Amino acid sequence: MNGRTYEEVAVGEELPPLPIPLTRTLIVATAIASRDYQDVHHDPGLAVERGSKDIFMNILTTNGLVDRYVTEWAGPAAVVKAIRIRLGVPNYPGDTMTLSGTVTAKHDEDRRVEIAVRGENGLGAHVTGTVAVRLPAKGAI
Amino acid sequence: MTAYEDFAGREIVPPREGPDPVNVPMIRHWAEAMGDRNPVYLHDDAARATGRPGIVAPASMTQAWTMRGYAPAPGTGGTGAEELNALLEKDGFTSVVATDSEFEFHRELVVGDRVSVREVVESISPEKSTALGVGRFVTTVRTYTDQDGEVVAVQRWRLLRFRPENQAPKALRPRPAINRDNAFWFEAAREHRLVIQRCAGCGTLRHPPGPCCPHCGSFEWDTAEASGRGQVYSFVVAHHPRHPAFEYPLIVAVVELDEGTRLITNLVGVEPGEVEIGMPVVLDWLDADPDLSLPVFRPQEND
């Protein structure tokens, strides 16, 4: 797997967009993998009763997908230092969420890079936030 | 100070250890479901090639290690958390959705780590109207520690606890002040009959109902059935203050019946801007709830 060094990254660089099909299976499988058994993440009838139009993705999974998106781009040597997200519209089954990201800052003292991330689905912005990763120095990998 | 304000700064979940140490099978399950192919989560060699001592868990998985799972034992939620939950449920905020998660990771978790979490309330917002319904934002700080008590991650966590819009209990209309002199009129309304009190002495019709004829002074009376036709004598449009039982803007009208008496009522099936004094209207019925039916009026349709 290719990795990025701190020196290779420039503020303003855009990450390639990543579309994620929001299948019902993905929403249920990720909820269970995160040990989140809230009924709104797997039971459509109860989700409707609780005021939702269908089951929807849990926030732990949004964290997980944003983490995956940034570390796929940064490479396996990257160490995630922060994930700060705000949720907007829900991720319902049948939609697609497309993640995009832009490098917004570099901190030389600890080789930390900040990436603004955004995940859009058919309803609007599902997630907006920032991920901070520490990248290896040139020659370290 | 409201009961909610008492929770600010309070530890609602005392340090609680996750049921399992950081382990490869649960990481595999997570990585598969997320579609994450980063080899450092599953292969020691790949992890060592990046300078790590061995496999690390995904940073975003930190919270999962302390999740209570499918059938948590009673009492494991923390008494503060249960008290807060009971308070929220009592106010009808039965639904929950996470809105913010702000994670700072102090170190990567490795296989064998035992993760504990404690949770302290930062703030609880006043009631807010949201797209999902009326609710309160509950902001907490979760501190994750390892087997040595060292902090591995800190998470600011915000939930919206809300009353689902489609379940909001609709308020009842204020009850009419019913007494022995006017009860007959409301009882007739429940049968969808609009009646007018009539003096048995002189035949004069009167409304609102009363014990004595203002024309001849007789206490004897009976009723006449109204035709249900009339016209707008006067009206106002109420915008504020709002009562939850009513739809706004609310048209409150004085309708003069063809029989000559007037009553205060609501107009339906018409926009406030379209109402005119003298407009012909016809009777309709509002079944507000099982105990209350009231006459309302709508514009007479042109033949």
TrEMBL record, chain A:
InterPro entries, sorted: HotDog_dom_sf, MaoC-like_dom
Top-rank taxon: Bacteria
Pfam families, per database record: MaoC_dehydratas
Occurrences of domain MaoC-like (ranges): 16-117
Protein family (similarity comment): Belongs to the enoyl-CoA hydratase/isomerase family.
Protein name, UniProt field: Beta-hydroxyacyl-ACP dehydratase
Organism: Microbispora siamensis
TrEMBL record, chain B:
Pfam families: FAS1_DH_region, OB_ChsH2_C, zf-ChsH2
Basic and acidic residues composition bias: residue spans: 7-19
Keyword line: DNA-binding
Domain ChsH2 C-terminal OB-fold: 225-285
Domain ChsH2 rubredoxin-like zinc ribbon residues, every copy: 186-221
Domain FAS1-like dehydratase residues, every copy: 18-153
InterPro entries (alphabetical): ChsH2_C, ChsH2_Znr, FAS1-like_DH_region, HotDog_dom_sf, NA-bd_OB-fold, Thioester_dehydratase-like
Region feature Disordered, mapped onto this chain: 1-20
PANTHER family: BLR3430 PROTEIN
Protein name: DNA-binding protein
Organism: Microbispora siamensis
